[in-house]
Design brief:
With 268 residues, this protein is α/β, with parallel strands linked by helices.
């Protein structure tokens, strides 16, 4: 028996409608793995078929570019678990420890340096904000905003559990107790970290008022009239009690190499 095209289309539409009801009744996982957008006839799935919360967006995947490039989820943001080092390739390659092979203004860094959140290596110092931004862009990431950094630092100990007073840089992840509530390491101490935000330089430096420990707060005065500065967060290995999850300063312009105490981590 030959079935006309009109009948076939009618049957197909009814089948897709039944599948829509199946989804609404909780068959989301099976259906999503079997049905693609090209399989659904026009108007076969309508809002009235789908109950609230039965179809939801997938969770944000927080994956780096390899097993040696680790990220964690901090709310709606993915952030690098470790302070970054820079490499010759997005995956594999060699860690760059000497002179960075592109200009300090970052204009010619495309494809030359790649940022990686790798455990057990010295994080990169002597890198400008522009170079850090370019290395992250080459790796499909970006610098976090100060607000995103603050979010990811939630729960990091404001204490000597972090590398705040050793006077020397340590490898990423060396301080097992210096971990945020979201699993990010070394957000306090080890290195100040570049974030995306720029500000005017400040004429003051001090500490936060009570309730924030002695964390540095060097963004409190009038603008000093100099070049724009980048917010640095968290403190370094020689800040002592001034390091912490609320520590912030505007001591360096984006063209600065950070005096060997500034590093960075990425987000997406």
């Amino acid at each position: 028996m030959t079935i006309s095209r009109t009948v076939r289309d009618h049957i197909r539409s009814n089948v897709y409608g039944l599948l829509a009801v199946f989804i609404a009744l909780g068959g989301t996982a099976w259906a999503a793995s079997k049905i693609g957008p090209n399989d659904i006839a026009k108007n076969a799935v309508r809002a009235k078929h789908i109950k609230n919360s039965q179809v939801t967006a997938p969770k944000l995947a927080c994956k780096g570019n390899s097993k040696q490039d680790v990220m964690v989820r901090a709310g709606a943001v993915c952030i690098d678990k470790y302070e970054n080092s820079i490499w010759t390739k997005k995956t594999g390659g060699s860690r760059i420890t000497g002179t960075i092979p592109c200009n300090e203004n970052g204009q010619d860094c495309k494809g030359k340096i790649f940022a990686r959140s790798a455990r057990g290596v010295p994080p990169r110092v002597n890198i400008t904000w522009f170079q850090a931004q370019a290395a992250l862009a080459n790796s499909g990431k970006r610098l976090p905003s100060s607000a995103e950094w603050q979010q990811a630092a939630l729960g990091t100990p404001d204490s000597t559990a972090c590398n705040v007073s050793s006077g020397a840089l340590k490898n990423t992840g060396a301080e097992a107790g210096c971990v945020s509530a979201f699993g990010a390491n070394d957000m306090v101490g080890n290195l100040w970290e570049w974030v995306a935000d720029w500000e005017q330089g400040s004429t003051c430096s001090g500490a936060w008022p009570g309730g924030y420990g002695m964390d540095a707060q060097a963004i409190c005065g009038a603008a000093d009239g100099g070049a724009p500065r980048v917010l640095l967060r968290g403190g370094s290995f020689n800040e002592g009690t001034f390091a912490g999850p609320f520590a912030v300063n505007v001591g360096h312009p984006p063209s600065s190499l950070g005096d060997a105490v500034a590093g960075f981590r990425g987000a997406h």
